[in-house]
Structure formats: structure tokens, C-alpha cells
Amino acid sequence: MSQSELQLSDIFSVDKDGKPTIKIVLFGPTLAGKTSMLTVFNALRRMEDPDLIVSSLTKIQEYGRTVFFDHSVFQTPPFKGKKFDRLRYHLWTVPGEERHKAQRDIVMRGVDAVLLFLNFEKTAWDSNVKTVKEAKAKIGEKFGKKIPVVAYINKSDLPPEERTDKRAFITFLQDIEAIPKENVANYIMTGSCLNARNDLLTILKSENRDEYLENERLKTSKRPDSVWLVVRPIQKLTQLVVQQRMEVLQGI
Questions:
Q1: Total tally of structural domains belonging to the chain
Q2: What are phi and psi of 187, to 5 degrees?
Q3: Residue 3 belongs to a domain
Q4: Which domain holds residue 34?
Q5: What is the pLDDT of residues 12-66, one digit of tens each?
Q6: Are 152 and 236 in contact (CB under 8 A)?
């Protein structure tokens, strides 16, 4: 099968509506900010109702959930000739507490890719390490290979003295074979879900809101950098899944 003949339905599972779907699990310790990331994504999805967005951005709840998003939220650029305008994103996250371990086992079934959602706080280092080891144990030999893995370190807004050095994350993730030795920037990303949330709130509450919105929808070109930093890991995971599966289908 040639690259041009491959369809998204050849690469991804198809849901009951006939849409190709990718399942990504946000796997991370408690209080890392996983729910905050989903809240930012949800706000982008619901831009046609700014008042509702403001409400959702100011009410962040910490509990397990699964949320569907369409391609417009992530704006994943074409990759290897494939466009993602029909792809539906199925994002899962569960609380990181020990008592939810069995729930995490269930959520990981049928996963296409994993976002290791880590915490820059120095006090969270042990929790980060435990989380990554648990994720690898659940997936087994497919971890970082047949099931792509990208790491996102949240809370880059913290003062430097309160953050773990990024190099420590890189060393640990490479040693445990979560990410490759080359092209590290493609596999470990940083950002602040809090900054993204606050920047969206600022736009929606601004007297100059029309500068950012068109027909009450945020212009993609006006997305704050903080928002793009939160979106980028999902885009990269999508590309990695496509690359890995195309290679398998084409017998490379």
C-alpha cells in the first residue's frame, strides 16, 4: 500500500460515527495540572460561547474524565501527506493518587499514545519518577516504540529556584527509554497550563476582544504562545502515531 493510498481510517480506529479516532492518555502525578490542560482544550473547542468559556476556565475540577475534541482544537499540520481534518481526539486522564491505580489500568487499554504529564516543582520529583515508571510498566515493551510517548512538563511559570532543572528530566527519561537520545526537543516539552488559562481569560474579558475574535471565535492566528505550548504535545503525538503505523503498514 502506497503512502498516497493510505487513509486515516487505515491508521486509526473508527468510532460509531465513522470518524477516525485517536486515544491519548494524559498520565501524570496528582496536582501536576492535567485537568487544567483539558480545561484549556475545552475552552478552545467552545469558542462560539465566550461567556461559557469564562465560566469553564474559572472552575477547574480535579477528577478523572474523558473528553472528545475535533481537529480544530489542535490544528495538527499535514504530516507525511496526511491531513487531520476528520480526526477525532479522545483524551483521557485519571487522578494520580494511589487509590486510583486500578482505574488507570482500565484507562490505558487501547491507548494509541501517551502524554507523560509531569510537574516542574522540585517537591514533585519523586512523584514524577514514580509516574513514569508506572506508565512504562503498564505498557511494557511497546512503551515509546509501538505506543509513542511525549513528555510535557507543566508549571514553567514557577520561579527558577522552585523548578527541577530540565536536564534532570531529560537524563531520567532517556535512561528509562521513554524518549530517544536524538531530537530531544521533539519529545520533551514545557509550558504552563495556568498561563494559557489566564491568557485566554484576558482575551475574553478584554474591551478589545474583537481584535482577537471573529464571529465570536478566537482567530487561530491570535492564539497566545502559552496556548500553542499546551497544544503542541498533542500535535506531536499525532504525528508520531501516524509515522509509526505508516511504517508498519508499508512494511518499512
A1: 1
A2: -125, -15
A3: no
A4: 8-249
A5: 888 888 888 899 999 999 899 998 898 888 877 765 444 444 444 444 343 444 4
A6: no
